[in-house]
Write a structure and sequence with these properties.
This protein is 40% helix and 17% strand. By secondary structure, it is an alpha+beta fold. It has a two-stranded antiparallel sheet with strand order 1-2. Strand 1 (80-91) and strand 2 (94-105) form a beta hairpin. Helix 1 runs parallel beside helix 3. The two termini are 36 Å apart. The chain binds zinc ion (ZN). Zinc ion binds next to loops.
């Protein structure tokens, strides 16, 4: 069994739908077939993207998932892991080695530590940068 096929069998029905929703288009033809096959095996039809987004929003707000806090904030997957990584951040003349625990979702690739504004880091002041560095979530 391929790595992808093995991974797919470990997903819950919800996660498989989410995986299809967020990641399907990233895959090559052969992998897409594996994803489609796994969905067919479980009798899951590919969700309508708009409906799925709406459903995610509702499920996330109505307490449908009691363990909500431990789930991925974007796709509500349980495959949301803490990844230990050393990140070297260079700023001006100084170089910092930061021990950061990022939570990363294996289903939709949401990553808690890598905020979407990462590309804008160059615009923050030195003080703001250090403040963010020291106060980032562990
Ligand atoms: Zn996710």
């Amino acid at each position: 069994m391929s790595k992808l096929a093995a991974f797919l069998t470990e997903l819950s029905d919800h996660e498989l739908r989410a995986f299809h929703h967020f990641r399907f288009n990233e895959f090559m033809k052969g992998s897409k077939e594996k994803i489609t096959l796994e969905m067919e095996k479980r009798g899951i039809s590919s969700p309508n993207p708009d409906e799925f987004e709406a459903q995610l929003k509702i499920s996330s707000e109505d307490g449908f998932f009691p363990n909500r806090a431990a789930l991925c904030p974007r796709c509500l997957s349980e495959k949301f892991y803490t990844r230990h990584e050393i990140e070297t951040i260079s700023y001006s003349i100084a170089s910092f080695e930061v021990d950061a625990d990022y939570k990363t979702c294996l289903v939709c690739h949401y990553s808690e530590g890598n905020d979407e504004n990462a590309g804008k880091t160059t615009h923050v002041t030195a003080g703001g940068f250090l403040w963010r560095l020291l106060n980032r979530k562990r």
